[in-house]
Amino acid sequence: MTTDTTTQGATPDATAPRETVLDARGVTMRFGGLTAVRGVDLTVNSGEIVGLIGPNGAGKTTFFNCLTGLYIPTEGEVRYKDKVLPPKSFKVTAAGIARTFQNIRLFANMTVLENVLVGRHTRTKEGLWSALLRGPGFHKAEAASRERAMELLEFVGLAHKADHLSRNLPYGEQRKLEIARALASEPGLLLLDEPTAGMNPQETRATEELIFAIRDMGIAILVIEHDMRFIMNLCDRVAVLVQGEKLIEGDSATVQQDERVIAAYLGEPFEGAPGEEEIAEVERAEAQAETQAETQAEAEAGTAADTTTDADAAEATTDAAPGKENDR
Ligand SMILES: Nc1ncnc2c1ncn2[C@@H]1O[C@H](COP(=O)(O)OP(=O)(O)OP(=O)(O)O)[C@@H](O)[C@H]1O
């Protein structure tokens, strides 16, 4: 990777004026009877890396989908730089929000470079006729797009694989390519859905550095992740979703120490919890087996003691038998 690895979790210039990049208010998403997201407010400011965490099924991806026009929220409003977002994903991308997906969505049979070029289409002005006629305007725009795409591949460390088919990249590099493709739309806000899923510790560390470098380019970031160490090290602010609702929001230390967050992650035993009865049954059976084993051990020890006594007694009897010495 060619990014500057000296960057840290704190924003580069804390005194720089902050602009609200994303402003989600009262976002609710219902699927029939299920409320996946309920009244969630969240802001992301320029220069910030904000984390969104929560247990499985908490509604994190659904919330992302509401922000990016994949879902139209049942209630609430999402603004990007003070403009209400249109409910269409390509328009949201054009407005300035790019994203990656939890399940990588690359064009498997396209090259690495082509995948990034696809990501640029919202920023190219050449229309259909220009493309069909392939005039000078088209060639100029195409050359500029390729140049920018190569810069982005250089940035994520994949320039040397520009001609490889994306399906042949190792998993960690596919995630990097997804990020390069998202950056190709020149976003002001990048949403990352589990960017380190399936990565080894080295790849995770490299991704952390890459995200800091993206932030330093002036792109605000909202990231979903299950790796707590990664998120706490990376983020200026963390919001916690539990069962569709925002439980708490704050800096890493505040969130990490919050007992409700710990309980939501580790789980607290509660009356009638699934499996409680089974656990109790296993414990009873184990206790019973232990008692039986102890009783048996005692019984065996007792028998052994009896046998020893009998033997000793027999020996004593033999020793005491008259004429014994004479028999030897
Ligand atoms: N399209 C859909 N139709 C019906 N229910 C859905 C849909 N999408 C998500 N859900 C439900 O909404 C809830 C929240 O799911 P979501 O995927 O947003 O959670 P998550 O926090 O991203 O989970 P994970 O960490 O496992 O990815 C879940 O109960 C899920 O089954």
TrEMBL record:
Keyword ATP-binding: yes
Highest taxon of the lineage: Bacteria
Record SUPFAM superfamilies: P-loop containing nucleoside triphosphate hydrolases
Keyword terms, alphabetized: ATP-binding, Nucleotide-binding, Transport
GO molecular function: ATP binding
Annotated Pfam families: ABC_tran, BCA_ABC_TP_C
Residue stretches of biased makeup (Low complexity): 288-321
Annotated ABC transporter domain residues: 22-268
Renumbered residue ranges of the record's region Disordered: 272-328
InterPro entries: AAA+_ATPase (IPR003593), ABC_AA/LPS_Transport (IPR051120), ABC_transporter-like_ATP-bd (IPR003439), BCA_ABC_TP_C (IPR032823), P-loop_NTPase (IPR027417)
Protein name: ABC transporter ATP-binding protein
The species this protein was found in: Streptomyces cathayae
